[in-house]
Specification:
Elements: H1 5-13, H2 15-27, H3 29-37, H4 41-49, H5 51-68, H6 75-91, H7 97-107, H8 112-140, H9 146-168, H10 170-180, H11 183-201, H12 205-232, H13 239-252, H14 264-274, H15 280-307
């Protein structure tokens, strides 16, 4: 039996959920449920409430980014657009939220190249933070990730060299990229590259620093929400230890074998929290609570996208 490319992609993403089922069976479903049923609702509610400022912060950063490209949207429009993208990214294995945001910008009359460029830069902010936080988490748990750290350090060194070359020889990179990209996409890719380079080079430094600060604030709130989930199921360890666990899990969630971090997050929590005496069922209950928070976030993102429904505005 042959599978299409899309079917193979979906099957690959089911590896993570399969790991969750196996882990719960291993620990005992009744034991996991017993921990969840005793979870403190006060801390769970506090974690859920933090979802609202997270979505609003992303809307503010998105508006700042669009403004640097002369795309004028109101706070309501930018927040709704970003919340819609976050919702679709959350509920689909392929993370199609970026495509949704691109389509929404194009519908408003902005060019495909400019729309793609904005989404790439926006994605770089979060991917960069995930990589930094994940690396910091691996350093924090260096005893458990000694071999992986060596690989990451070598890969990071190579990436740094490539980045320097990218900045120094942008015209050569552009020529190489256009040869690798199919003909039908070359025009848009070239225009998007010019938009990205132009957007990064122009604009006030303060403007860019604000975008970085909003990004840091978003992830600080995210780790706080995870910490509250841990307390809710009786995991009383330091904020930095929980954040380190969450950062490593977040980094591994980039692997194309999971949906919403299911499986990879469970494995990380069992491994790292188990090192300090947290039992398996408590680790899995914690992971289940984080997943539940994630699903509730999806619903809240959707509601925000409706509340701040975009209005049609004239374009340049």
């Amino acid at each position: 039996m042959k599978f299409s490319r899309l079917q193979k992609k979906w099957l690959l993403h089911l590896i993570g959920p399969a790991v969750v089922l196996a882990a719960v069976w291993w620990a005992g479903p009744a034991k996991v449920w017993a921990v969840l049923s005793k979870a403190d609702p006060t801390f769970i509610a506090a974690a859920i409430v933090l979802t609202i400022p997270m979505a609003l912060i992303k809307g503010i950063r998105w508006r700042l980014l669009l403004d640097s490209y002369d795309i004028k949207l109101s706070f309501a429009d930018s927040t709704s657009m970003y919340a819609t993208g976050m919702f679709f990214s959350a509920v689909t294995p392929g993370r199609v939220g970026d495509l949704v945001k691109i389509a929404m910008l194009i519908k408003k009359g902005y060019s495909t190249a400019k729309s793609v460029a904005c989404n790439i830069i926006d994605r770089l902010f979060d991917v960069g933070m995930v990589l930094l936080a994940g690396y910091a988490g691996m350093v924090y748990f260096s005893a458990q990730f000694a071999k992986q750290l060596k690989i990451v350090n070598i890969s990071g060194g190579v990436a740094l060299v490539l980045f320097v070359l990218l900045v120094a020889k942008r015209h050569l990179i552009k020529k190489l990229a256009t040869k690798l990209i199919p003909n039908r996409y070359r025009s848009v890719a070239g225009e998007s590259w010019n938009e990205i380079a132009g957007g990064l080079s122009k604009g006030r430094v303060v403007h860019k620093l604000l975008m970085v600060l909003w990004t840091v604030l978003f992830w600080a709130i995210y780790f706080t929400a995870i910490y509250l989930c841990g307390i809710a199921v009786g995991i009383h360890v330091s904020f930095f230890y929980i954040s380190g666990c969450a950062a490593v899990a977040m980094l591994l969630s980039l692997l194309p074998i999971t949906v919403a971090g299911a499986g990879t997050r469970d494995a990380v929590f069992v491994l790292l929290l188990g090192q300090i005496g947290i039992v398996r069922e408590q680790c899995l209950a914690f992971s289940a609570l984080v997943l539940t928070l994630f699903l509730l976030n999806c619903a809240i993102f959707y509601l925000i996208s409706i509340i701040f429904k975009p209005k049609e505005i004239p374009t340049d």
